[in-house]
Amino acid sequence: MAFLAIVLALAGAVFLAFGAQRQGSAVRAHTGGLDLNAAGFLRLLRHPRWVLGLVLLGTGTALNVVALALAPLTVVQPIGAIALVITTVVNSKDQGIRINRATIAAITACVFGSALFVLLAVNVTQQNHSVAVGQELVVVLLLVLAVVLFGTLAVLGKRRLNAFAYILGAGVLFGFVAVLTKIITTHLLDPNGRFLLNVPLYTAIAFLAAVGLGIWFVQSSYATGPPDLVIAGLTVIDPLVGIAVGITILGELQPDVETIAAVGMASAALIAIVGVIALSRHHPDVVRRQR
Fold first, then answer.
1. pLDDT tens-place string over residues 45-56
2. CA-based nearest residue to 167, from 106, 102, 87, 238
């Protein structure tokens, strides 16, 4: 099963990489490097290259879900970071961009930091941990605050937001989406047989709002930066936020965690985040846009 999970995760990384590149090039061609608006987004739904990217991203996500069902997070999650490397190579070939040393160092930091964080986190978190009603409500309230914050930024500071701001918002929102997906799945699998009736209305509304705003931030990041950043957000920031919420809010941390493990996780997260910031500043595509 582990071997099959690795193969599926690798295939998922390839689909995610090419999907992000296809959507990124479609948005860039459609907007001409300008900010994406609502009308432009609706027109993208009829753009063949963008739709192809959506299909590829959906396929990659589905493959990762199956891989996670067949093997531990420790095995699958670090493989997903390979999508960042593939996206960078594919995008550089497509756009005729030469990858500089700063970009290579940033990508290395992203992959190393996120992989180390996940490996350490899996060893200190409890498996099959039940979620209390109060914990679920706290997660929803925090997500509502995140939606209000990033939604306000998207409306009031639209022309002042850069690619990193968009992908940070997408990573945070989809990190919460991952947590709520886990909670909602638990409700759906409850043996009482009520399925969707088990899901609180406020949880469903918060989930849909986060997904919608997260998709908007991802598409806006395509218009303001390279697709590498999108994958960096979805494979670095998303897992960091999801695991952090699971540990701090849902109480998934084991009671006997050693100090060195906690320090290691914090250091790994910092390395990954610094990598994303460096990528948003020193990527050749970003530098070319600034000039």
1. 788 888 999 899
2. 238
Predicted confidence at residue 34, as pLDDT, reads: 55
Calculate the CA dihedral of residues 223, 65, 103, 175 and round it to 10 degrees: 70
Q: Is the pLDDT of residue 131 over 90?
A: no
Task: In whole angstroms, give the CA distance from residue 78 to residue 286.
Answer: 26
* Whole-angstrom distance, CA of residue 127 vs CA of residue 13: 25
Asked whether 150 and 266 are in contact (CB, 8 A), the reply is: no
Closest CA relative to residue 70, chosen from 3, 120, 11, 15: 3
**Who has greater pLDDT, 39 or 273?**
273
Distance set, CA 278 to CA 90, 227, 232, 284 (Å) = 20, 15, 11, 11
Residues 111/278, Cβ–Cβ less than 8 Å: no
Burial 256-291 (b: 16+ CB within 10 A, else e): eeeeeeeebbeebbebbbebbbbbbbbbbbbeeeee
Q: How far apart are CA 282 and CA 161, in angstroms?
A: 17
Number of neighbours of residue 39 by Cβ within 10 angstroms:
8
d(CA 167, CA 254): 31
Q: What is the mean pLDDT of residues 49-71?
A: 84
Name every residue whose Cβ is closer than 8 Å to that of residue 214 and which is 6 or more positions away in sequence.
169, 170, 173, 174, 177
Q: Are 68 and 4 spatial neighbours (Cβ–Cβ below 8 Å)? A: no
Alpha-carbon distance 152 to 89, whole Å?
34
Q: Which helix (H) or strand (E) holds 237?
A: none
Q: Give first-to-last CA distance, the chain, whole Å.
A: 50
